[in-house]
UniProtKB/TrEMBL annotation:
Pfam families: Spo0M. It comes from the Bacteria. This is Sporulation-control protein. It comes from Paenibacillus algorifonticola.
Length: 256
């Protein structure tokens, strides 16, 4: 009885450790691993094991920025079972990393959170950081942007409920022109990626450099920015990075 009381407050309760197959993934890739569970000093009923893909985003309130955790995807990986005292058990799992998972650029963290739901006790957990890199389609688009003379300056996850679709934020990739025809014409180019299994959609924010009195007024009124949507399908992607760069160049030049 005393051991059960201690387990209810986390002393001598079950412990978990999540082991991922690897530490680097791309959006849309399968994540595989096992959850290792070690029984405590008493038998306990495990209601469920749940994995969540997590990140952080910034939201401004009262002229201050606050960091918020966000669940990108959640995955139950077990049915209820009884875990005996001292028992060791492994629960394998696999799930698809959501396409909307941000890239680990700048200060953006991504981690897999594991939660063990134990009846009548404090629930143990485990956090495992992962690196998220562009998949092939995203990589081609980002390489095309760089071919046009843009350099990535900053990457942030910012609150934007109207643009985030199923999420309350978007990841903004902020590029500056350091070479090529857009140097001196644009202040920056912001890119938001919306990948899925078939294509990559982009939301471009083209920020023109102020030129003349009218340009300074436009900048002061925030009317020097243009938003453009463009989608690259599998057919576009098969044409190669140079073809994507050429199409982006025409679109940006039209609004520069």
């Amino acid at each position: 009885m005393f051991n059960r009381l201690l387990a209810s407050i986390g002393i001598g309760s079950a412990k978990i450790d999540t082991l991922l197959e690897k530490s680097r993934y791309s959006p849309g890739e399968e994540v595989r691993g096992v959850v290792q569970i070690r029984g405590g000093s008493v038998e306990q009923r495990i209601e469920k094991i749940e994995l969540s893909v997590m990140t952080e985003y910034m939201r401004e309130s009262n002229d201050q920025k606050h960091r918020h955790n966000c669940v990108i995807g959640k995955y139950p990986v077990s049915q209820p079972f009884e875990l005996k005292a001292g028992e060791n058990r492994e629960v394998p799992f696999s799930f698809q990393l959501p396409f909307q998972t941000p890239l680990t650029l700048g200060k953006t963290p991504i981690w897999v959170k594991t939660e063990l739901d134990i009846r009548g006790a404090i629930d143990p957990g485990d956090n495992d950081r992962i690196e998220v890199v562009p998949n092939a389609a995203m990589g081609m688009v980002l390489e095309a942007v760089q071919q046009l003379g843009f350099r990535l300056r900053e990457a942030d996850c910012e609150y934007a409920s109207r643009l985030g679709r199923s999420l309350p934020f978007v990841q903004e990739l902020e590029f500056v022109p350091t070479a090529g025809q857009f140097r001196g014409k644009l202040d920056e180019l912001e890119v938001i990626l919306y990948p899925d299994a078939q294509q990559v959609e982009l939301l471009l924010q083209i920020d023109r450099k102020a030129r003349g009195l009218g340009g300074f007024f436009a900048e002061a009124m925030n009317t020097d920015e243009t938003f453009v949507r463009v989608t690259f399908t599998q057919e576009h992607l098969q044409a190669g990075t140079q073809a994507i760069a050429s199409q982006l160049e025409k679109i940006i030049a039209r609004h520069a």
